[in-house]
Amino acid sequence: MEIIYAPGTTVLILITIFVTFYSFFNHKILYRLCLEPSEIITKKRFWQFFTYPFICGNITSLVINCAAIWFFGFALESYMVSVTHFWGHLYFGYYFGFGAVISALLNFLVRRKDTNFILAGSESIALGCALFMLFFDPRVTFYFYFLDEGIPGLIIVGVYALYVVIYGLIKHRGLKDLSPLYIILYTILVAYFFYPATIADVMHWLNN
Known about the structure:
By secondary structure, the chain is mostly helical.
């Protein structure tokens, strides 16, 4: 699979790496780009709805999430391009962007009075890519050089989703970041209203 088939995924990763590394050396930028509901209200930092997905809190988070974005985003964008050709790149960008903003708005509404709540959302990008990938191709299987047999995508996505939830619980010391839940609901609703055949395919696959 050539890199040209997933330019959207590549751009997302490059932006995340650049913005995150830049914020490591400039904490003022870090706090201006992360999602802080109280700051949006008091200082009118509305750009945070769009910038928070590109921030990672540390190197470990950056490596894991960029690997996940590449892994799932590459598969999702390539699949969309194979079905809708050039428009697949635009659909991929739409699903990512709209999902990230919706998640930010919901977090903002729920945590607008919490002055200690700060959110960096690259995990949500990767999780959204993973879930959409499953909905569009529930039978997808991933193959690795060091394994003789492939691993079902459902297992890999489940493991990553568990990581995202546990990481969020540890980072926020409790169930404060509801982004994974918002992303899951967003994915299901988009699939239900715009791709009902996909829902039927997933249910048929699960029942068999």
